[in-house]
Amino acid sequence: MAATESGKKPKRDTYRHGDLRNALIRAGLELARTGGPEAVVLRAVTREAGVVPNAAYRHFADRAALLHVVSQAAIAQVARTMEAEQAALPPAADTTAAARARFRAVGTGYLRFAQEEPGLFRTAFHVPGDMTHAADDDAAGSSGKTPFELLGAALDGLVETGILPEDRRPGAEFLAWSAVHGLAVLLIDGPLRGLHPAQAHDAGQHVIDMIERGI
Amino acid sequence: MAATESGKKPKRDTYRHGDLRNALIRAGLELARTGGPEAVVLRAVTREAGVVPNAAYRHFADRAALLHVVSQAAIAQVARTMEAEQAALPPAADTTAAARARFRAVGTGYLRFAQEEPGLFRTAFHVPGDMTHAADDDAAGSSGKTPFELLGAALDGLVETGILPEDRRPGAEFLAWSAVHGLAVLLIDGPLRGLHPAQAHDAGQHVIDMIERGI
DNA sequence: GAGATAAGTGGATGCTGTCCACATTGGAGT
DNA sequence: ACTCCAATGTGGACAGCATCCACTTATCTC
C-alpha cells in the first residue's frame, strides 16, 4: 500500500529542483489542457512538480504571472497548428490559388486547434488582457510569427496576388479574426458545442467563405 | 465612528428577509457589472443582502446556480439593448431599407452593450455552457425574444424583403453571431480594447458590412 | 575556504465554497 | 385561537486557495 498517491511522484532527493520554472510551465500547460485557465492552480502546479507551493514564488510574481506565461505558450501552439495547416497544403495551381489556400489555412488551423485543444485554446485567449500580448515573441510558432502575424501575412498575400483590393487591406485582420474567433467560441462553449467534427469543419469553411466575400 | 462599513448596511431586523432570492440576484448583477462573472462571489452577494452566506443555499443549489440565473438576467439586458436600438431607428424609406436597418441594429445593439457594460456582457456569455441556455425564457427582453431570436427575426426580415436569398438563410445566424461576438471580445479583452467609442462604432459597422456582403 | 545569494521549506493569515446541526417564524389545519 | 410544520436564516466547521514572512540549504563567486 505504498502507492497511495494517484500518478507519479518523482520525489526528488536533491534539495534543488534544477528546472523548476519549466516544470511549472509544463505542469500548467497540462492542467490547462484538460481544465482550461481556471485549472491552472498554483498549488496543483507545484504539487505536480513535487515542490512546496511557495517555491513557485521564486520564479513567478504570482499566479497571474504563471498563467500569463502558460497562456503565451498556448498561443504559440496555436501558431504552430496554423503553420502545420499551411505546410500540409497540396501544391496549388497558380500563385493566386496558393495565396487563397494559405489564407484559408490560417482560419482552418485556428479552428482546428480550438476544437482539438479547447482547454488550451481557452487558456490562450480567454484570460482578460492577455490577448494584448499576442504579439510577444514567446507567443510565436516555429516560423517566429504569432497567430496575428500569420494572419497578417496571409492577408498581405491576398493583396499581392490581387485577390484583395489594397484599400480593403487596413484593419482586415480584425474582421477576419472576429469572425473566426467568434465561431471558435460558439463551437467550444456555445450552441454549436458538441457538433460533429465534420460539421464543425463545414461551419468553419462557411465562415471563411463569408470572410472572403465580405472582407 | 459608527459608520465603519463602506456602503449601506440595511441591517434587517426581521428574521426573514422577505425577498432574498431577488436580492441575491440583484446583488449578483451589481457585482457582475463591475467585476464580471468571477466577481459574483457567494459570500459577497449574501453580505450585500445583509444575510449569512449559507442563506443563499435556501434559494440556489450552489454558486454556479446563482451565477447561471445572473447570467440569464444579463442576457435579457442584451436583448433589451438590441430592442432599444431597433426602436430608436428613424423611419425607413421602404420595407427593404427597414429590414436592413433592423438587421444592423441587432448587431449594433449587441456591440453597444458589450462596450457599455463589459462586466455584464462577460457574465452573459463567458460562463461556459450558459450560452446553450440563451434561448430560455428568462433570457428574453421586453419583446419576449432572446438575443438569438432577435437575430433570427432580423434575418427572416432580410429574406422576406428579398435582400437575402432563401438558400443562404439556414445557419446564417451563426455566421452573423460569430463575427459580431468575435469583435465584441476583441473590443473588450483584445487588442482593440480601449478604442475610442467612435472608432469602435466604426469597427462595428465595418464588421456588419462584411456580414451583409458575405452572408 | 568564506560568504553571498538563489532556491526551496514551514507555518500562518484571510479569503473562498460548502456541509451539518440548530434556531426562528409564518402560515396551514385543526 | 392553538399547534405543529416546513420554509427560511444562523452558527460553526472544514478543506482548498493565494500569498506573506522567517528560516534553511545548497550552489556559485571571490
From TrEMBL, chains A, B:
Keyword set includes Protein transport: no
Ranges for domain HTH tetR-type: 18-78
DNA-binding region: 41-60
PROSITE patterns, per the entry: HTH_TETR_2 (PS50977)
InterPro entries: Homeodomain-like_sf, HTH-type_TetR-like_transc_reg, HTH_TetR, MT1864/Rv1816-like_C, Tet_transcr_reg_TetR-rel_C_sf
Residue ranges crossing the lipid bilayer per the database entry: none
GO molecular function: DNA-binding transcription factor activity; transcription cis-regulatory region binding
Keyword set, alphabetical order: DNA-binding, Transcription, Transcription regulation
The protein's name in its UniProt record: TetR family transcriptional regulator
Record organism: Streptomyces alanosinicus
